[in-house]
C-alpha cells in the first residue's frame, strides 16, 4: 500500500489554505463540509472565497505565506500556481510534522485527497495514489451509481440503535452476526425507507424473521445502461429472479452472481408460463422468506401485467414495491431519434396494444386518425398490415410516416422507415428480428433529419429507408 487511508476529523480544528484562486475555493469548500476552521493566506484572494470565509470561525490573511502561519494548524493545503511557494509550504510543514497537501504535486505531499462518494455518514474514498486522477474519478462515479440514497438512512438508523443492540446482544460476535444478517434481511430495506419500527422488529429481536418480499421492477427496453439505479441495486440484493423473454442477456449479466434465475417468458408461438403460475410463484417464494425480483421488460405498468401481479401480492399480504422502468415506446423512440411529441407535428401521443386475430387488430381506429397525434403500437409484426389498412380506411393519409423499430436500444437495433402505404412491402423484403414496435405520425420524419443528433446513421445503427 502506498498510502495509509484515514478519515481525518477536522471539525472545529484549524486548517491552513495557501492560495486564493479557483483551486483554493474547491479545497475550501471541502474543508468547510468537514467543519474545519480555515485560515487562508495569499496576496490575492478571490472575492467569492473571502465571502465564504467571512465570520469569526475563519481568518483571511492577504500577504505571502510565512512559516509561522503553520502554528496551531492541524493540516495545510497549498493551492497556488507558484512552485517556489508550494515547495516552501511543503518543506516547512514537514519540518513541523504537519500533514501537507500540495495540489497536483504528489511529490510535495504527505497526504493526498481521495475522490469521495459522500452519503454522510457513509463516505467512500477512492485513490490511485495520485497516479491516475481520471481513473480515480471514473471509479468514484461507478461507486456513486451503486450506492442507493437509502444508505444514508440505514447508517443513521444503525448509529441510533448501537446502544440498544449492545443491551440485547452483549456478546460482540453475536452482535456482529445479527447485524450482518439484518443487512441482508427486509429490515435493511425497511430502515432505508424510514420504516424504523419494522426494522426494529428484525434487528432487536432474537432471530431474523425472514418475511420475504417482492420487487416488481422495470428493466427498460434492452440497453443495460437504461436500468435505473434502484433496479441495479435490487438486482444485486435479490435471492431469486423471475424474468421475461424481453430481458436482454446484458441486463441479466448484472444480476447478483448467486441469485437463482427463473425464466417465465411468454414468446409468441412458443410454450409460455401462464400468468396465474407466475403469480403463484411470486407468492410462494415470498412465503419461503425470499427476496424476490420480478424483472419485466420496459415498465411493469405499461402493457406488462404488473397490475395483475400486484393484485396477487395484495391478496396474499406479501410486502412489495413497484419500480418503474423506461418503457419500450420512449426508449426505442429516443434511440431512433424520433421525438414522440413536437410542437410542430404532434401535440399528443398514444400507447396502444392489441392482439391480431386472423391478421386483424380490433382497436378504436376512429380515435387514432388525427394527424397531430403520434401512435405507438406495442405489437409484433403480425399486426402491421392491419394497422396500416385500418388507419388508411379510417381517414389517415396513406403518406403518413411510419417507423418499425426492431430490438430497440440494443446493439442490434434496426429502424425501418416508410409510409402507411409502403412499409409492409419494405418489411417483407427485410429480415426483421423480434421484438418490434411501430410508431406512426409526422414525428417519424425527424428520424432522418441530418440535424438530428440521434440520426440513426450517426449512432451506427442499420437503417432501411
Ligand atoms: C407485452 S409488451 C411489454 C411492454 C413493456 N412493459 C414496456 O413497457 O416496454 C411487449 C411489446 O413491447 C414492445 N417492445 C418491448 N421491448 C422492445 C424493444 N427493445 N424493441 C422493440 N419493441 C419492444 C414490442 O412491441 C413487444 O411486442
The CATH architecture assignment of the largest domain turns out to be 2-Layer Sandwich
Look at the structure and give the CATH class of the largest domain: Alpha Beta
User: Into how many domains do the coordinates divide?
Assistant: 4
Measured as a percent range, the helix fraction is 25-40%
Number of strands: 18
What is the global morphology?
globular
Distinct ligand kinds:
S-adenosylmethionine
Structural class: alpha/beta
Computed CA radius of gyration, to the nearest angstrom: 30 Å
Please tell me about this protein's structure:
The chain has 465 residues and is α/β, with parallel strands linked by helices. The chain has four domains: 14-113, NAD(P)-binding Rossmann-like Domain (Rossmann fold, 3-Layer(aba) Sandwich); 150-203, no CATH class; 213-326, Tetrapyrrole methylase, N-terminal domain (Cobalt-precorrin-4 Transmethylase, domain 1), CATH 3.40.1010; 329-464, Methyltransferase, Cobalt-precorrin-4 Transmethylase, Domain 2. It has 16 helices and 18 strands. The chain has a six-stranded mixed beta sheet with strand order 13-14-17-15-16-18. It has a five-stranded parallel beta sheet with strand order 3-2-1-4-5, with helices on both faces. Strand 1 (14-18), helix 1 and strand 2 form a beta-alpha-beta unit. Helix 5 (150-160) packs across helix 8 (186-192) and helix 12 crosses helix 13 (306-315). Mean pLDDT is 91; it is low at 450-465. The structure holds S-adenosylmethionine. S-adenosylmethionine (SAM) binds at residues 221-222, 246, 296-299, 302-304, 327-328, 332, 378-380, 405, 407-409, 435-437.
